[in-house]
């Protein structure tokens, strides 16, 4: 087993010898957090240059730091080990970061790519329902703040039926009443809404009221979690 796996890795390395020094990593951070983008290649760093979308940001060489951009504007720093720090990230910091590391003799040691994505907290999803001919049409919607914002939406009925999609709205049709839950998430946050939906027969006012109460409590808890 183990032997075969080692063999497989070795063959892959033989097939793609460049894989070792040109990996693309994804790094997600929430707005206003600070991020450390570090160099994966082992060993000491003599000369490292960080670029964002092919534009040079800064360089550390022989322990001296040189900025190619405005230091306050980029809110960036470099440590002796080559790690790039970005403080109080804003969405515009998202991009392709590349670091190139050189040895003392000028030989290139490594080049690494990081797709850095700064995400805001997801908006509160809205769960709506329509009752047509004893069939419930449940819809969960999230309002995008920007066009390229994406979420994972998950719609569940009574913990059994579950659909999931990378989108901004999701619909479910069913002939059964029940508790519906919609969860919206991205890489840095998550919000939820839950509702008891009954289609056939009279509406149960008590259930609706208690669900609404539960939702309000949940929203308050989420707000406290996010802002405290
Ligand atoms: C961002 O974080 C700093 C502290 O790290 C805090 O003082 C500031 O209020 C935060 N800003 C927002 C918009 O959350
Ligand atoms: C690099 O140095 C910084 C500050 O000294 C430290 O926080 C970070 O963990 C280091 N990263 C690595 C990969 O060694
Ligand atoms: C960043 O890299 C990804 C994949 O490597 C590519 O799809 C994307 O277009 C790049 N974005 C920019 C702004 O260069
Ligand atoms: C409801 O069902 C009836 C008969 O089954 C049909 O005539 C009617 O068009 C349906 N209404 C809707 C809104 O689908
Ligand atoms: C969701 O879709 C968008 C484009 O439609 C894509 O850029 C993004 O990577 C997808 N996200 C996930 C987690 O699949």
From TrEMBL:
It is found in: Membrane. One of its GO terms (cellular component) is membrane. Residues 29-111 form the Immunoglobulin I-set domain. It holds the Pfam family I-set. Residues 1-21 form the signal peptide. Keywords: Glycoprotein, Membrane, Signal, Transmembrane, Transmembrane helix. Gene3D superfamilies: Immunoglobulins. The keyword Cytoplasm does not apply. The chain crosses the membrane at residues 205-227. Its main location: membrane. The keyword Disulfide bond does not apply. This is Immunoglobulin I-set domain-containing protein. The lineage of its organism: Eukaryota, Metazoa, Chordata, Craniata, Vertebrata.
